[in-house]
Amino acid sequence: MKSWMNLRSVEIFVAAVEEDTMSRAAERLGLTQSAVSQAIAALERAMGGQLIDRAVRPAKLTLLGTTFYKGASDLLGRVRELEQSVDLDLNKLLPLLRIGMVDSFAATVGPHLVKQLDTIAAQWSVMSGVNETSIRALMERRVDFMITSDNSHNQFDLIAIPIFEEPFFLVAPPTDAPEEKTAEELMMDMPLIRYSRSSFFGRQVDAYLRERALAPQHRYELDTSDAVLAMVSAGLGWTIATPLVVLKSMQSAGNLRCYPLNGAPLKRKLWLVAQHTENVDLIERIATAARQATIQHCVPRILRLAPWMQGQVGIPDSPY
């Protein structure tokens, strides 16, 4: 190996490319911006050419930089795979396991999943923000694994294992009326409480409304499911949700009414997504534990909430 080639320099360069700016790369790696700039400059001097064209804004990779980035990214992936393989083979704890989980899964299934897998890692980092559960977070290696409903994973060379499937349904304020309501009837009486359109969940609901040519009154848009369902519980409107979302928010949302959606079923599928460089046995172990935790701890609660969901929730292609 050439004297200027070391993994830390490679890691710094890859982080700078993935984060777009030196400052964000420095924050990600716990370094100063000056240290990041100096490391990249040292690489360029050693290689005898520019990796980044700083004359344009925003800065872009040169041809040399693009070639080096591809090899460097692959190298870091193989190093990560080697580290995990060695740790697993020696029956040691992983030093750190970083996993992104959609918020509703993290709050309802997450504790049971972590408890079941607690012995595989010395330290856990569980993230559930919108950015941390997007496929980009996995591609940029900000997380090692992800449980997400973001189906853009099929655009990349990633491993995706289906974990759970659940239907969307109507959620309305508490009422003594026994009859079921349709979306058309609800929108005549009150506005739709919307989810933030920056979320994959919110975009999926909006796509359903467009396909059904439904144009409910738009007054409220909130960025958390707890806030959305609390607004519904207060009688300010209705919404569309899934069982895990309602289970997560039941304490703050109160006694809500749940009605099936008319027409073709709209479902949300959750996937465990990982890079091909991750340890296959570890991926399977996490997927199995996630499925078991969901079926054991959440499906019974879902069926008590809405018995008509029998056969509509469970592992994809194998409904409970």
From TrEMBL:
InterPro entries: LysR_HTH_N, LysR_subst-bd, WH-like_DNA-bd_sf, WH_DNA-bd_sf. It holds the Pfam family LysR_substrate. It comes from the Bacteria. Gene3D superfamilies: Periplasmic binding protein-like II, Winged helix-like DNA-binding domain superfamily/Winged helix DNA-binding domain. One of its GO terms (molecular function) is transcription cis-regulatory region binding. Residues 5-62 form the HTH lysR-type domain. Keywords: DNA-binding, Transcription, Transcription regulation. PROSITE patterns: HTH_LYSR. The keyword Transcription applies. CDD domains: PBP2_LTTR_substrate. Belongs to the LysR transcriptional regulatory family. This is HTH lysR-type domain-containing protein.
